[in-house]
């Protein structure tokens, strides 16, 4: 009886061993059947960098718009393309819609010109825009403390009207 168990275990072991060998052979032939793909060659493009125009708003002077890009090269498939862009409406358009500046406080009023000025330094430029490093802006001063000559003329008008009423 022990010999039968021994023979049975030996057959199971032989079957498992043969199955293992068969699996190894199958995997090896599958790998051998696959052709090794050459690694993709990195194409050296002779296309230049994209050069982008300024953002042109669809309507008005801010909001959504588009810009055109171009690049040069003998074998470029695409030499022009259009890109969507946005011009923030709160940026100072005076210095370019794609340039944002950090401004100092307004200076004192110049009585000769009746203007006050402040300077701004470049904070951010969108899409590699060509922006000035610093800019200066001016605006009219607020109400100046000058005596108003109109006050006297108004009093005279009122007095003149009173006299006219008295004559009537």
From TrEMBL:
Annotated function: Secreted growth factor that mediates its signal through cell-surface proteoglycan and non-proteoglycan receptors. Regulates many processes like cell proliferation, cell survival, cell growth, cell differentiation and cell migration.
Molecular-function annotations in GO: growth factor activity; heparin binding
Protein name as it appears in the record: Pleiotrophin
UniProt record, GO biological process: positive regulation of cell division; positive regulation of developmental process; regulation of neurogenesis
Keyword Secreted tagged: yes
A GO CC term assigned to this protein in UniProt: extracellular region
Signal peptide: 1-32
InterPro entries: Midkine_heparin-bd_GF, PTN/MK_C_dom, PTN/MK_C_dom_sf, PTN/MK_diS_sf, PTN/MK_N_dom, PTN/MK_N_dom_sf, PTN_MK_heparin-bd_GF_CS
Gene assigned in the entry: PTN
Sequence similarity: Belongs to the pleiotrophin family.
Subcellular location: Secreted
Alphabetized UniProt keyword annotations: Disulfide bond, Growth factor, Heparin-binding, Mitogen, Secreted, Signal
Residue ranges constituting the Pleiotrophin/Midkine C-terminal domain according to the UniProt record: 96-158
Any Pfam family: PTN_MK_N
Residue span of region Disordered: 139-168
Domain Pleiotrophin/Midkine N-terminal: 34-95
